[in-house]
Amino acid sequence: MAVSLYQRETLIEQLQTTKNWDVIIIGGGASGLGIALDSVTRGYKTLLLEQIDFAKGTSSRSTKLVHGGVRYLAQGNIDLVREALYERGLMLKNASHLVSNQSFIIPNYNLWDRLKYTVGLKLYDFLAGKLSFGKSVGISKTTTTSRLTTIKPDKLKGGVVYHDGQFDDSRLAINIAQTSIEKGATILNYCKVTGLLKDDEGIVSGVIAHDIETDKSYKLNARVVINATGVFTDEVLQMDDNKAKNIVRPSQGIHLVLDKSFLPGNDAIMIPKTDDGRVLFLVPWHDKVVVGTTDTLLDSHSLEPKPLEKEVDFIIDTANRYLNKKVSRKDVLSIFAGLRPLAAPKDNSEKTKEISRSHKIIVSSSELITITGGKWTTYRRMAQDTVNKAISLGKLSNEMCKTKDQLIHGATENVDRSNHLYIYGTDQVHIEKLIKNEPGLGEKLHPKLGFTKAEVVWAVRNEMSRTIEDVLARRVRMLFLDARAAISSAPLVAEILAKELGKDKVWERQQIDDFTTIAKQYVL
Known about the structure:
alpha+beta; 16 helices; 35% helix; DAO_C; FAD
């Protein structure tokens, strides 16, 4: 077998042979990966280091929407909405295998709401301009109930249909990582930055990186170091200056995953105002329904945030107010929590829904560059702004951004969504070839879901998977779709991984134990 570009040995070798980098990025979520792609396509020698796996944190735990932000429109944040709608259009063009046009229906229970949302969404359409996903339109009660067969008809006046994007977040993260590697970047997971290097003037000049798999550390020099670590932003800022104040306050959002029977059609539902003013979405995703999200300020953060009971109750109670098919706890196939890195509120009166989602770029006195805030939809623009900031500081030569038209690995316009392998885009044929050459790889990992053994092999060889969790949480998404099915599939996945990675039975057992411990948190 030919040596893969994405093999860990190949990437680690680049770490050992490159003495000086132009750009080192800490953090492998949407922001960091976007910056890596922007940087390498401008011609800079680029390295990204992620302490666990790509998109392990916030970037795999989104509501799966590529959107302008209807609620930001209500807050009067026109510029943020316009920017996000533009980026939404580019994502559909550049990652067409993963981003799709999704219709949403806002059910209206009084005529004033109907008028308000019809007018507001016409502005949303106008701001999208040439990159519009489709016009919003008011529909009658009869049409609303025929399209949303599980919606409660009592007091329903009709609905407003609008269009936004829907996607698979961690799959896009992996594909951006692959694109960056193909362009010449070095992108590594399980490589933790443990310290910053500084020159005699106290300017950041590189990082100390620790390869978790081999327990080996590296001193790596760079012209610019970028902190793109999301909810871990403050830890890196405190590596730079141990007196640095916290600038990020994590806000937790949880999602419940239900069977498709709770929302059988092709439309998503958007509830624009819940009891505490938050938005609730019910979105079709991989033949299931994702319901969320909450917005709860937390005082601390972790790699595996835990859903709070009050958040679960809030989502179930709100969904049951609108659906005539009652949701109970036993219907929840998976529950996942994600943390948003919000700017720390100035005082306790500031509510999370009012804190701006626009991104901020901070330059420390040591010239460490930090990017915070933002959202998946604007990842490309955030990257462009961050690299432009490094150029404006004189740290990099002035090269133009090239990502507006950069196709992401796997992009294809021929997407047949009837086969779940469509998410691989142009790689689908290679997975089918694996099965053709070795028919046993066509066996399902679990009878309830379509994922196959071939996808595990592909994830190790070409998508930098190192653990069961990498595969079942972020490559084939089983943990997010049906946590119990993922737990029962773990031994089979461990066996395939061990064979591919040359590991023993002790490693297999440990992997199963580690994964089961994490996966139990996804079971309600």
